[in-house]
Amino acid sequence: MKYLTKQIFNYPIGLVYRAWHDPLLLSQWWPPSGALAHIMAQQFQNDGQTIIRVTLPDAMEYYEKLHYIEIYNPSKIIYLASTCDREGNNIANPFLTGWPQILLTQCEFVALNPNETQFSLSWLPFQASEGEIELFEKSFKVIDYGWGESLKQLDDVLLKLTTPSDDKVN
Q1: What's the pLDDT at 164?
Q2: How many Cβ atoms sit within 10 Å of the Cβ of residue 59?
Q3: What phi, psi does 53 have (nearest 5°)?
Q4: Quick check: 28 and 20 in contact, CB under 8 A?
Q5: Cα(154)–Cα(170) distance, rounded to whole angstroms?
Q6: What region, left, alpha or beta, does residue 110 occupy, with left being phi > 0 and alpha being psi -120 to 50 degrees?
Q7: CB 50 within 8 A of CB 65
Q8: In Å, what is the CA distance from 137 to each residue of 56, 78, 125, 144?
Q9: Is the dihedral of CA 105, 131, 83, 127 positive or negative?
Q10: CA angle 146–1–13, rounded 5-degree value
Q11: Is-contact 126 104, C-beta < 8 A?
Q12: Distance of alpha carbon 116 from alpha carbon 85, whole angstroms
């Protein structure tokens, strides 16, 4: 069974899509609340990858890799998500024993009108054992909470981008 979440963003499709590949924007909304993200490497292209270092509030670090399979600007990004070492080699999740090592991820962006985008994300364990799939399926509430927080942070980043600044000279 795959995990699926959807959200409507009140921003143009191009801006929502850009937040998924622009290193400056991605680093602002990707990490869990209170953590910092640094884009270590990025090749946003088919068969390319992004490696993200996440530093938690207690200074513990971990790395995530997004290995891009297919990119359709601005409608879809398909990638394999995994925890990795700093060189990009996949490793077991350091926080959750038995978690699938790789998740097939599909992000879809649909323009509902010029300033409204429907976003959906699906996750499916990739080359996983029965036990890993079972743990994944039992974790939908936690996954939903995590993606909910991240998408809220994404919305906040997009709001800052589209809100006029008081610093601007008229």
Answers
A1: 83
A2: 6
A3: -95, 125
A4: no
A5: 28
A6: beta
A7: yes
A8: 26, 20, 9, 11
A9: negative
A10: 55
A11: yes
A12: 37
CB-CB contact of 158 with 109 (8 Å) = no
All residues at 6 or more sequence positions from 4 whose CB lies less than 8 Å from its CB, including other chains: 120, 121, 122, 123
Tokens read off for 68: 């891009």
> Domains in the chain, start-ordered, CATH in brackets?
11-114+136-149 (3.30.530.20)
Task: Report which residue type is found at 63.
Answer: Y
Q: What are phi and psi of 44, to 5 degrees?
A: -80, 85
Q: pLDDT tens, position by position, for the chain (170 residues)? A: 999 999 999 999 999 999 999 999 999 999 998 999 999 999 999 999 999 999 999 999 999 999 999 999 999 999 999 999 999 999 999 999 999 999 999 999 999 999 999 999 999 999 999 999 999 999 999 999 999 999 999 999 999 999 987 554 44
